Amino acid sequence: MNSFTGTGALIRLILRRDRVLLPIWILFMGLLPLSLASGTAALYPTDAGRQGYIDGLAANPMLVMFYGPKPLEPSLGALVFWRSATGIVILAIITLLMVIRHTRVEEEAGRRELLGSAVVGRNAGLAAAVLAASGASVAVGILVALGMMSQDTPAAGSVAMGLAWASAGIIFAAIGAIAAQLSEGAGAARGIGLGIIGVSFAVRGAADMTDTGWLNWLSPLGWSHHVFAYTLDRWWIFGLVAVASLAFTYLAISLSARRDVGAGLLPPRLGRAVASPGFSTPLALAWRLHRGNMWGWTIGLGLVGGALFGGVADSTTKLLADNEQLKEIMARLGGDSVAADMFLAGTMGIGAIAVAAYGISAALKMRLEEASLRSEPVLATSVSRMSWASSHLVFAFLGPLVVMAATGLSAGLVYGASTGAVFDDLPRVLGGALVQLPAIWVLTALTVAAFGLVPRLAPGIGWGALAACLMLGQVGALLGLSQTVLDLSPFTHTPRVPGGEMAWTPMIVLTAIAIVLMAAGLSAFRRRDIPVT
Amino acid sequence: MENAISVSGLVKNFGPTRALDGLDLTVATGEVHGFLGPNGAGKTTTIRVLLGLLRADSGQATLLGGDPWRDAVTLHKRLAYVPGDVTLWPNLSGGEVIDLLGRLRGGLDPKRRKDLLKRFDLDPRKKGRAYSKGNRQKVGLIAALASNVELLLLDEPTSGLDPLMEEEFRQVIAEEARNGRTVLLSSHILSEVEALCDRVSIIRLGRTVETGTLAQLRHLTRTSISAELASPPNGLAELPGVHDVHIQDHQVNLQVDSTQLDAVLRQLSASGVRSLVSQPPTLEELFLRHYETPETAGANQK
Known about the structure:
The complex is a heterodimer of chains A (533) and B (302). Chain A is built from 24 helices and no strands. Chain A is mostly helical and 533 residues long. Chain A has a domain at 1-267. The radius of gyration of chain A is 24 Å and the shape is globular. Chain B is of the alpha/beta class. Chain B has two domains: 3-217, 3-Layer(aba) Sandwich (Rossmann fold), CATH 3.40.50.300; 222-280, Alpha-Beta Plaits. Chain B has ten helices and 13 strands. In chain B, the strands form three sheets. In chain B, strands 5-6-7-3-8-9 form a six-stranded mixed sheet, sandwiched between helices. Chain B has a four-stranded antiparallel sheet with strand order 11-12-10-13, covered by helices on one side. In chain B, strands 2-1-4 form a three-stranded antiparallel sheet, covered by helices on one side. In chain B, a hairpin with a 2-residue loop joins β8 (199-204) and β9 (207-213). In chain B, α3 (94-104) runs parallel beside α5 (133-145). The longest helix of chain B is centred in the middle third of the chain and has 16 residues, at 163-178. Classes of the chains: A mainly alpha (533), B alpha/beta (302). The interface between A and B is large, with 37 and 42 residues.
């Protein structure tokens, strides 16, 4: 028996356990470029039209940061490769989480010990998780390539694009395996892993926004973009990806060999022997469970991200100074600050989707507490179901308020400092951040409703709704979806401020929908069995 | 109030699975009541109904004179619960969990807390994720035992404890009983039940199959007899209430219903008894009679 014995059996176990989830996301991710390609081909049938579209988007540095370096040619394939780049990041997140789910989560739950006692090699679990996630990435890549070929794009470019997608999945599966070795808790491992993706994204974005070529090679996410499918088709990058994935996997395996089952490389610290006097209410418990996440989002997205948005906003105006044509359009729309305003409003819209993810995860904390049976001993004390649920909901609803307010304040201060009109700009930018809250609350409240009514489906409904809103907002218009469909996303209705008209009706309606959904969830939770496992 | 817990005809379905099928349970105030049954018999489900976490489909349940579902919040001030698998928050220390649960219940005795920490040999500074299964269980036990409550609901509370701690647990429960607390102890460890419980209820497939004191339950079952005789015995197998007769030359092994013991002894002495060993049924035998039926294979709910 070597240290990989049983890898095949464990891969089958993973496929069996993920038999529903895996095909869904493989199909979804794999067919995304195809649908984008057919939509784009219908909207922009000519090279000239596509060039105009590319120039329009690429004039906004924030979008270059989001989508990567702009295509070198206006061919359909090159445009879709560029425009669907968000999918590469999503694929990376999925495979990273998948590997952590099948390694550290298993270990934390004690199931790895059970398997470890069978005829299973020491590294089999890790290898199986990485191989399964890599296999799924390849499946996505194949679908991407076939889908693009079906849209009459060149075969070589399609294969390069499929490989570029698969590469991101494979490399972040290996990075997930490293993250899983570092901490004892799966939550911290996910945090570390997503942090690495965040840094890779930021480095890649900064490199493309400032056109600093060498910086790009530091970010594994950048490698996929720099394949430049349909134009350069840089095949050698895949060699780099293969070497790096093997090296990362090898590093994960050697880290795993240095630690005990269940332990992390970062040592745990001792806590208090006696609880502090105030630690005596459900709210105090909820604060302990939610505060890490809330600080993380407030500092990460709110203060740092906000400052970044605010800083870049002013440069959009400066950038426009170089482009006479756009400058003219903007001037007609309402002056110099229009570009910055549009940029800020758009950025707040994108930031709001991220903050909705935070709201949903805070609401799902209730489900996590229930499913792990930690809610049971608390509800067996003299704590009512309502006060237990409300203590979590304080964070699910007010947490996003804190994060959005921090984003708005930070962006407003930095932007105001660069324009020199802090007292004018700060309230406008802060308002732009806060108008997003009702839409965020709708998604959070939908998750609460699902938690009360169909607890087992709550994570699927919450994250599914978020993914749907993301898709509707990012590519919905490009896919030629009707306004009725686009209207399903609460983010379609939030006013575009600063710059646009403030509209109170959608704000009130969205808030009312959120209240109704939350009340429905709470009332069902009061009546149902606990725990539903 | 005479009975701390009084349950009759309790039914609970989980979809197509019937977890409780007309269960009856009576626990008198001040007694330690053993709650026995194979995995999936419905012990945990019953306790969750008593805690007002699950709503029964039919039947009556009264807990400390109140309705466990409607009056959950007020009743919970007077009871403490230890689940069979204590799960802790990974980032909270054991000491914090003990204090939190105690305070949420309405306060805990700091002297008793300190004493219990020492007796169970638990380091309260470790974080939840660093505890072993046995130590997590101790956190739950200390949190419950350090509170001044009338009723303890313990669901297989000693799973994962080592024999030393198991012994400590028995002593603590015996003290609790002397102080007049009522205890419902669901357990698999028969020696523990034998040592601690005044009365026991045995449940199977969501139904109560036996209930009473250990002496009463023994009376219902068989005594095993092993005797060496002067001459080969005859007619033993024909006697009513005699089972599993094995005769080898002068050696006899058999089982007899407690009510028929007299007749068997007379028949044996007719053949001349050289040596005789008689054993009352162990709790284990009592159990196995209820556990070892083909139907148990159908139950898989825990």
